[in-house]
């Protein structure tokens, strides 16, 4: 879990903050409210999740409840990975 | 169309004639046909001439019959024929057919309020030798540029900053607050420019220099008070057509052939059609096309060409072309830019010039005056939703916005709503319409170095704008407030400057804009807003007028703003090793650190991301173009030492003692 969390934080810091201020957002901070993410950012994030974790994200999962903070992302990915294992 | 420069000194020394010559040589591209200077004990005036009206009798700087008034003038007074008749009736005697002479007589007759009689696009300086006063003026909407500064008690002015930088004592520094403005609003707020202590005369302002003091005064402004009760839609349509025909006809006054730009949109299609229909001027049209279908509008251009049967030429623009000419574009624009869209127009003016044309009519101004921009639509939807934030149905209108932005169209409804989120506190903001754009752009400041941020300190660009808003602003309809912001910020600061005058004049081409006739602007300000945006149908009245003149396909197409390939013109994902030498150099860690404005680490990540070929959005594109253009600007204007002037055309010198 720590590893996933760190990977997610790295992705957000490098890709949206260009290495600046990676310490300045907490795991609970909303990407939308803090302006970290814009409309293209959502697509970037989803592309990253799908390729990094080999999961497929459905249209109805593209909601802030799943994607709008490190904590929410972590929970979402763990759920997705768990589902994938159950299916396997 | 021309370039002007000059100075007036108050320290008792004679003006430096050699420097005057160097100043005008620095902007010789604006007027390659002739250059002349004039100086006496107090003042130096210079002029680079592009001959358009009265080739033989329009030499400048021009004086009146007794030499008490001198003028150097860039631009056109389109109603000079009518003014000459009026002034002749008042006893004035003219010796030429030029509009320049009209300025001298009008100034003699009406003093500084002469500009209220002018219908045109101008930047000029009149030296009143008797009063020892230098009077400068700039047109109402900011078509023509005019910059100035003070050096050792001397007031120095010119059409472009590069002419001022010839002066050895003019400082070459970037103004940190200007960067804060530009990376919020996409432009600086006049009189501030990107260069510290170099100023721009705001549109619709006069400036008088007398005994070492300068006084700036606004002589015109738009007041957005819709008619109450309104006229019928038919009456408004008739009036608008009549005004546009007359505005276009006035703009065809030239002693050289006039061409027209065709973007494929409604506005330039209509101005071109009006030339065809209401004048017998021969019609040549010019367009930009793109390989990239995301930007290309050639299908609509061709529809207009077929319908109007014009003699048409276009230039195909690729991202490689943009990358190649971008340093020249920035050198002419003298301002950082967040988009590359000026570059294709730089190439287009080159084509126009090669074809022997000096003047083009274009459609700029229609979106601002008659309600065409997406930002107006966006604000309307958000405000409507904001009145009932709980509504399930109102946010569905968001689907109608920005159909040409694929990354936005790919969003789920939940995210779409989140991105257009209306914060209750924003509803009362005077900048409601523009906050999403400005806040998105402000994110680019994450690239600023801590040192730059410290210099900017607690300066707040919104507070400055707020202090500059006209008294009447709060009484205007919300729609018109948004129009005012576009008309006073982006129009003169970017559309008519970096994307207008500067890239056209780079190849000695003059743009003329029927929609920016002040009578059209004043008429539009009185229109009921529903005739600008009817529901979510933009430019409603203009479309009604255009129906008889432009092809159905152009009339019914969805609005597409003029854009060009941005980051991929410089950093290619498909061949990441290939990069233009200047891009590699100016974005290198060393050069970024040298300039000191942007964080080298952040720039490195940005370039890496763009090279990686991931999806990139508006913000990343703007960041790269903004950083690169700023680096180019520093490289071209701040770093170099003053150079001796290049060998140029012969300059005719006149001296009065």
Which SSEs are present, and which pair or pack?
The complex is a heterodimer of chains A (88) and B (657).
Chain A: H1 2-16, H2 39-53, H3 64-67, H4 70-87
Chain B: E1 3-8, H1 17-25, E2 34-39, E3 43-49, E4 62-63, E5 69-77, H2 80-89, H3 99-110, E6 120-128, E7 133-138, E8 147-151, E9 154-158, H4 161-164, H5 176-185, E10 199-200, E11 205-210, E12 213-218, H6 233-250, E13 258-261, H7 266-278, E14 284-290, H8 298-308, E15 311-317, H9 319-333, H10 342-354, E16 359-361, H11 366-370, H12 374-386, H13 406-409, H14 413-419, H15 435-442, H16 450-456, H17 461-468, H18 478-495, H19 497-505, E17 510-512, H20 518-526, E18 533-534, E19 537-538, H21 540-546, H22 552-556, H23 581-586, H24 589-595, H25 600-612, H26 618-638, E20 651-655
Parallel strand pairs in B: 2-20, 13-14, 13-16, 14-15, 16-17
Antiparallel strand pairs in B: 1-3, 1-9, 2-3, 4-5, 5-6, 6-7, 7-11, 8-9, 8-10, 11-12, 18-19
**How far is the first residue's CA from the last residue's CA of chain A?**
20 Å
- Please tell me the CATH architecture of chain A by its name: Orthogonal Bundle
Number of helices of chain B: 26
Going by helix content, strand content and strand pairing, the class of chain A is: mainly alpha
Tally of structural domains of chain B: 3
The CATH topology of the largest domain in chain B, please? Answer: Rossmann fold
Let me know the number of strands of chain B. 20
CATH architecture of the largest domain in chain B: 3-Layer(aba) Sandwich
Low-confidence sequence ranges of chain A? none
**Approximate shape of chain A:** globular
The stretches of 5 or more residues of chain B where confidence is low (pLDDT under 50) are: none
CA distance, first residue to last residue of chain B: 29 Å
- What's the overall average pLDDT of chain B, rounded? 92
Could you describe the largest sheet of chain B, including whether it forms a barrel? 7 strands, mixed
